[in-house]
Amino acid sequence: MGKPIPLCALLCLLLFPCGQVILNITKVEATSNVHIVYLGETQHDDPMLTTNSHHDMLASVVGSKEIASELMVYSYKHGFSGFAAKFTESQAQKVAELPGVVRVIPNSLHRIQTTRSWDFLGLSAHSPVNTLHNSSMGDGVIIGVLDTGIWPEAKSFSDKGLGPIPSHWKGVCESGKRFKAKRHCNRKIIGARWFVEGLVAEYGQPLNISGNREFFSPRDANGHGTHTASTAAGAFVHNVSYRGLGHGTIRGGAPRARLAIYKVCWNVLGGQCSSADILKAFDEAIHDGVDVLSLSIGSSIPLFSDIDERDGIATGSFHAVAKGITVVCGAANDGPFAQTVQNSAPWILTVAATSMDRAFPTPITLGNNKTFLGQAIYTGKEIGFSSLIYPETKGLNPNSAGVCQSLSVDNSMVAGKVVLCFTTMNLGAVRSAAEVVKEAGGVGLIVAKNPGEALYPCTDGFPCVEVDYEIGTRILFYIRSTRSPVVKLSPSKTVVGEPVLAKVAHFSSRGPNSIAPAILKPDIAAPGVNILAATSPLDRFQDGGYAMHSGTSMATPHVTGIAALLKAMHPDWSPAAIKSAIVTTAWRNNPSGFPVFAEGSPQKLADPFDYGGGITNPNGAAQPGLVYDMATDDYVNYLCAMDYNNTAISWLTGNPTVCPTEEPSILNINLPSITIPNLRNSTTLTRTVTNVGASTSIYRAVIEPPFGTSVSVKPNVLVFDRETKKLTFSVTVNAAHQVNTGYFFGSITWTDGVHTVRTPLSVRTEISQPYIDEN
After folding, report:
1. How far is Cα 299 from Cα 273, in angstroms, rounded to an integer?
2. Paired strand residues for 465
3. Could you tell me whether strands 531-534 and 546-549 are parallel, antiparallel, or unpaired per DSSP bridges?
4. Fewest CB within 10 A of the end CB: N or C in the chain?
5. Residues 35, 54, 184, 224: which is the catalytic one?
6. Which position among 553, 580, 747, 762 bears the catalytic label?
C-alpha cells in the first residue's frame, strides 16, 4: 500500500458540498508515491510485449522483476503506452531520465460532477419520423460510461427486445462483490469493469472506513453512474415519477444502444476517482470497441495543460478520438462565473447544462390572500394557515438571525410555524436550514435565494419552498407589516410546455476557455436540471429506485445519447463531424420562439460562453448539410499553436512531429466556431466545410457581425457537386473602433434553403496599451 493521504487534507479538499448531487468532480494533487509513467503511443501491436517492456523498465530501476511486479499498479497497453507504479521520489526521478519516457507525474485524485427532456429536445417516441426512429434508437452502437458503476437490476437496463451483442465488441464483464457477470450483464449491459488499484494505492486504507458503503465490483453504491448511464441509453420504463412529480415514461437518448461500464469513481469521502484508474479505463475502452465515451467527470481551476497526464481525461480522450471514438464530457458546475469551464481540449465535446420546459410551482398563500409561486419538490399534505416568522435580532444587524446557513431559532420561537430565511448559497444552505427548523418543531420553510431551477427535496419530505429575493422581500414586508402573519403551503405541481422557458443553469460553468481562449467552450448545452433517471437504492435522494438530479453530469449523457444516434445513422462520421453537426444546428431560442436566457446575477440573454452553439437539436444534427471535419493532424496543429514541446507532441501522437518554424494560427483550427480573443485591427482566418447533404447544392453566407466589427467571407457562395465535397473559405474580421472591449457575439451561417449551418462568432477587440512616459 502507498502512504495514506492525511485525512484532514482529504476532508478539506475532496468532500462534496453537504448533500449536493450537482457532482462537479474536483481534482487535487495526490500526496502518495503512486506515479504515472507516460510513454506516448504504443510501439507494438502485441499488448503482452508492451506490458513486458513496462515491467522491464520498472525492474531496471527497482532492482528485480519480482519487486517490479509488486510495485506495478497498471500497464497501459492498448490506446497508448505507459504504466502506473509505486515509487519513491528518487526512483521516479530515475525513471524520468530513461529513454522513451515522455513524463513521470504523480497520480492525482478526482471527484465525481428523464420523463420530459427527450420530448423537449424533439425526440418523442410517438413521432415516427425523428432521429430517434431513423437511427433505430441507436441499435448497434456501444456507449462506454466512466463513472461510479451501475445498478444492473434497474428496469432501465433490461435487454428485452434487443438483438445480439454487436460484433465489434471485444470487452468483458467482470464479477465482483454483489455483481455476477453471467447474471448481471446482458445484451444491454454488455461489459462491466472496475478499476480501483490507483485509488487504493493512494488512499492507503480500506475504502469502507469512510462510512459509505462500497462494492469491489461494477455495482454502483453512489447512484451517479446509474443515473448517467440510464440517461444516455436506458430502456423505456413506464409510469415513473419522483415523489409523484414529473410522471411519465423515462428512457435514455439511445434506448437500443449497448452499455459498457467502467467504474473508476468510488464512494469514498463523497466520491473519488484516480487518474491512474481513469487512464486505465480509457486504455481498455479503446481496446474493447466502444463508439462513444461519456464522462461526467471534470478537473479544477487552474487546469492542467492539454498534454499533462495529471488530467488523465485530456490525454485519454486524445487517444480515444484518434481511434474514432467520440468523447463527451461535462463543462463542470462552477457557474455562473466566467472562465470556469473545464474539459476544454478541442477534441472533447464539452456540455453545459440547461433547464427545460418543465417546472414544479408550489403555491405560497399569505394571510392577505396574496399567492406567490415558489419552486419545490414537495408532495406531502397541504400545510394549512400557520404562523409565519422571520427571525430577527436587536442591534446593528437585525437580519443576521435570518440567514439560512446560520439560522438562529429555538423551539419556543418556531414550534408549529413556517420560517422565512434568506441566503446567497444554494443546496447546502436550504437543507441545513430545513434541518434546524424541523428540529425546532417548525412545520415549513421558505428560502429566498438567487434564482435557480435545480431542486432537491428536504429530509423526510419536510416542506421547503424556494423563491427569489423579490418574492422573499415581499413576504418579509408582509411579516413586518402584520400583527399575526400566517401562510399556507400547498403541494408542488408539474407544469410543462410553453409557459416554461429553458435557461442555462445557474451552476453551469461558463467560458471563455482559460487554457486557450480562441477555442470556444462549452461546445453545446443540454438539459441538466431536475433530470429523472434510474439510480442506486443507496442514493440518499432515491424514490423507488429513481432520483431527480441536476448538474452538467446530467447534461453530458443527453449529448452522449444523441452522439450515439448520429453514429448509428452515420457510422463513417468522425468525432469532429459529430461535434460539428451538434454545434452548428443547435437552438438559440426555446421551442416557443423566445430566446434562451442564462441564469446568473443578473439573468441575461445567453451567449456562446454560456451554451456554445446553443441547446442541442438532435433532429437538426442528423442532417446538418455541412460539417467542419478534423483529424489528428488538425489537433497537432492546435498543439503546435499552443507552443507545446515537439517531443511531447510526438509521443502523444505516436509519430515524429516537428512544429513548423512559423507557428500555426490557433484561429485556423477547423472548429465549428470562431473565437477571436485579441482583435487589434484586422485578422483573416480560414475554415473548410465538408458536404454531407445532397451531392449538388449551393450554400450562401449570412453574416451577423459582432458589435463594433465588420465581417466578410470569401467566397460567400459555396457550390458543391459530385466531385467537389470540400471547400475552403476565408473570414476577415475588422475592428470598427480602436478601443478595448469585452466580447461581442455574432455568427456566420451557411444556408442552401434547407439546411442552416450556423457558426458562433465571438470577438473581443484589444488594442495595445499606449506608451506612458513616467518622466
Report:
1. 11
2. 446
3. antiparallel
4. C
5. 224
6. 553
